[in-house]
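Sample pair:
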Amino acid sequence: MELRQIRYFLALSETLNFTRAAERCNVTQPTLTLSIKKLEEELGGSLIHRERNRTHLTQLGQMVLPFLEQVYESSDAARAIASDLNRGARIPLSLGVSDAVEKSHLLQPIREVRSVAEGLELHVEGGSDLNLVERLLDGDLNLAIVDASVATEPRLRCHTLYTEEMVVILQETDPLAGQEMLSLQDVLDRHWVGLLHSPVHQDFAMSAAARNADWSIRHRATRPVEAQVLVLSDLGLTLGGDHEPLIPGLTFCPLAEPLLTRSIVVAEVRGRQSSSAAVTLTRLLRAQSYLPRRRYAPDNLDTVA
């Protein structure tokens, strides 16, 4: 199997037209057709089904497409790394980081990337998860570390860094703060700060509403840090992850039920060429262990990967 065969197939899977795919790859249509045929022979079945006015991928074509995309994109990344190293060029890297992510997780990976990428020019931005995903898709960011629930666009490839348990965030002076575990009944009579565009907050609201018809979210925020400010301003309680950085004056307590979780991922756009710095940083972030901040962690919990 040759990379050019994979490139031709990927172009054909997007255009579903042999003539346009050949033009995109800057080859003749017979050359592209022959390469696709050889690829089919190697894979043992038809990849493309031709009809008069409708060309589409076969079942085999649909199954192998994501694997061939990964092979080709990995090759592109390898070429980018070699090019960057050979040229000693500047390596700009724009990274978006959700407010819900503890920034200390970035320290060691960034140090290691800097040690191998002399031309690194790093730009780190915060923001709401939804905004960071939009900027990633628009090309303003190379990578984004966000809540997996908002990174659902098919063009995105996401690598899970860790999954955290959702906890109740409240003031340190709150009467509930001293409890080891909170029941849903403990918080139903309290005002609540919801996070817009957060499915896990919506799930919590539905669970609470099912137990008390009068329960509702009183206040709303776009970003976790804004929700914490409202909590610190005596406007209510909010929900956050047990890795989430807290404003001084706040603490958190676990919920007995419902058990809600949130996965944090590093996201990139499929098919977009990655620099050596982006590839290396992604790998280092994925390889890192993520310890929970929660004080109530079981004694046998050593790491959260």
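The longest strand covers residues 156-171.
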